[in-house]
Specification:
Blueprint lengths: L4 E2 H14 L5 H4 L8 E2 L6 E3 L3 E2 L2 E7 L5 H14 L12 E6 L6 H12 L9 E4 L5 H16 L4 E7 L12 H18 L2 E7 L12 H5 L2 E7 L5 E8 L7 E13 L5 E12 L14 H17 L15 E2 H10 L10 H14 L3 E4 L2 E4 L6
Parallel strand pairs: 1-2, 5-9, 5-10, 6-7, 6-8, 8-9
Antiparallel strand pairs: 3-4, 10-11, 11-12, 12-13, 14-16, 15-16
């Protein structure tokens, strides 16, 4: 009997063979394995646990201005740096981010991330940017060769195509044009055995990705990004071919000043602030995105509720719930150093802080008064 092999090995060999051998040598690429020789592979099958598979097509879609591109950018940085993503394990690897839309903001986005997320002298890992607009159907071979030339012996873990619309010359609704686009994407996947993340727009109804349905039939994972109340957006894993669905990440975009232009006016970009996650999709259990600062803020709220809290009737608050005016909570935050009066806009900082906790459903508020949501653990 032959040596045991894994299903993952078979899939990888088949995909690689499609690129490495001529079409007339098909018989040499076909491997017929007895059932008894198949063994489980325990190697990682994800780049970000229950969000991005190790190999395959991922579509991240949503309406304009929902923050999907910034969110994908931040997610890819976690992969290139090898950082756990708010309670989810990450498989570190090189990233090639093709910014076909909004190329003019590539520099400000990079500076904002470096300024807000990297310590002095810190590295973003193997994160590469490509800003030339391409017709992927025609140019995917050139893109593959350019990646090989730039990365050398390093194989990318993920290639991001942002957006589909700006890399497809043709109609998103045409079955022929979409089939050709998907064939080009498959060539990238098969060449590098990587994930390809396509950032895409939604249709007019906002309930599905725009364009021909063949896109949905080809994907390995689908993530919708929707704008919620206020400044919050939520990314939800709506489909996962080989994994759990329903995981969510709620985030806001924080604007930061990265410099001044030649007229002396501020140049700005945004960084992603994750406010909550569902670390175990489908379980309803809270994630691990509560930061040290948020924990300190909750402790300050507890102190304010004890010292200045009231139990009188307040609309929307549970009957008998203790609540406290935001001014008292804010004073306690200043006293504990969670908020800094020397900041440019401490009021806005306080608003971001309580909105993040409210998004996790840890607190609620009405008319400037706050209370903790019963039954939710920190």
């Amino acid at each position: 009997m032959s040596d045991p092999i894994s299903i993952a090995h078979l899939v990888a060999k088949a995909r690689q063979g499609a690129q490495q051998q001529p079409a007339d040598d098909l018989a040499a690429r076909i491997e017929i394995v007895h059932f008894d020789d198949i063994r489980l592979s325990t190697s990682r099958r994800y780049l970000v646990k229950n969000i991005i598979p190790r190999v395959g097509l991922v579509v991240v879609w949503g309406p304009p201005k929902c923050g999907k591109s910034f969110w994908v950018y931040d997610l890819m940085m976690h992969i290139s740096r090898g950082l756990d993503y708010h309670g989810r394990h990450v498989h570190q690897g090189a990233i090639v981010y093709c910014m076909f839309e909004g190329q003019g903001g590539a520099d400000t986005r990079a500076v904002a991330y470096r300024q807000e997320r990297l310590e002095e002298g810190g590295s973003a890992g193997a994160f590469y940017l490509q800003t030339v607009t391409l017709d992927l159907v025609r140019d995917h071979t050139a893109l593959i060769e350019a990646i090989k030339k730039r990365l050398g012996n390093v194989t990318p873990a993920a290639v991001v195509l942002d957006t589909l619309n700006r890399s497809l010359v043709g109609s998103e609704s045409s079955d022929e044009d979409m089939a050709a686009y998907l064939k080009a994407v498959s060539a990238i996947i098969e060449t590098f055995q990587c994930a390809v993340i396509v950032v895409h727009h939604c249709g007019h109804n906002g309930d599905r990705p725009r364009g021909h349905s063949s896109l949905l039939g080809a994907l390995d994972a689908e993530i919708s990004v929707k704008r919620g109340d206020g400044q919050h957006s939520t990314a939800e894993v709506t489909r996962m071919k080989d994994g759990a669905e329903g995981g969510t990440v709620t985030f806001t975009l924080r604007q930061v000043v990265v410099g001044q232009d030649e007229d002396g006016e501020d140049m700005t970009s945004c960084v992603v602030e994750v406010t909550s996650t569902s670390a175990e999709p489908g379980t309803g259990k809270p994630g691990k995105a509560l930061s040290d600062r948020q924990r300190l803020a909750l402790e300050a709220l507890d102190a304010a509720l004890i010292d200045r809290g009231k139990s009188e009737y307040l609309a929307d608050a549970p009957l008998g719930a203790t609540h406290v005016h935001g001014d008292h909570w804010k004073a306690e935050l200043f006293r504990r150093g969670v908020l800094d009066k020397g900041q440019k806009n401490p009021r806005a900082d306080f608003k971001r802080l309580w909105e993040g906790l409210a998004a996790r459903k840890l607190i609620a508020q009405r008319d400037g008064s706050f209370w903790k949501v019963a039954g939710v653990r920190d």
